[in-house]
Amino acid sequence: MAKNTELKLLIQRYVERQQLVYDIIQKLHPDFLLCHKLKTATDAETHQILDMVKSYKDVPQSGFWGVNNEWQYFFHGGGCRLVHTVTKEPIDWDPPDITIFDLHKFKPYVVWSIFHVELGHHGQKRYNDCWGQIDMWFASQWQQLDVAGIIQKVGAGYLYQLT
């Protein structure tokens, strides 16, 4: 159960770190925070949202952000991936709910935490050598978290939330 607790803490940390992605979206591409509303918007609201989207069409898809440009960003779909330029910490999130995370976007954070934090620059080689074992371990841990009721699936796809 100790590993479950560690993974739960890592999920909590990742969900908290998603705030950084929210912040860059809010600053550079706030239209991304509204696009999910298109499904239920009235015609007038749809036109307003689409006009806003057009006004941000010249925002670069990738670049650097932060007080010291310490984050490399990449806008994709309606979300954004951040990678710290020094630590290589990856954070990837799609709006609208900051408490929901995508399993496939969380996995690289777990790998980063295991290999890059604990093993430093040797982490990537170790990760490449051990990928099969990590994938099996992750699937096993994820199932235990699900059975224990620590996480719950949200909607379709690979979206989850801590309970």
Number of domain modules: 1
Count of distinct strands: 7
Which sequence of strands runs across the widest sheet? 1-2-3-4
Low-confidence stretches: none
Level of helix content? Answer: 40-55%
**Shape type:** globular
Give the N-terminus to C-terminus distance in angstroms: 17 Å
For the sheet with most strands, the description reads: 4 strands, antiparallel
Radius of gyration over alpha carbons? 18 Å
Strand proportion: 15-25%
H/E series: HHEEEEEHHEE
User: Kindly state the mean pLDDT as a whole number?
Assistant: 84
Specify the structural class. alpha+beta
Report the total helices.
4
Question: Topology of this structure?
Answer:
Blueprint: H1 2-28, H2 43-55, E1 62-65, E2 71-76, E3 79-84, E4 90-93, E5 101-102, H3 103-119, H4 123-147, E6 151-153, E7 159-162
Antiparallel strand pairs: 1-2, 2-3, 3-4, 5-7, 6-7
Helix pairs in contact: 1-3, 1-4, 3-4
Summarize the structure.
This protein is of the alpha+beta class.
Structure write-up:
It is a single chain. The chain is α+β, with helices and mostly antiparallel strands. The chain has one domain. It has helices at 2-28, 43-55, 103-119, 123-147; strands spanning 62-65, 71-76, 79-84, 90-93, 101-102, 151-153, 159-162. Strands 1-2-3-4 form a four-stranded antiparallel beta sheet. Strands 5-7-6 form a three-stranded antiparallel beta sheet. The model has no long low-confidence stretch (mean pLDDT 84).
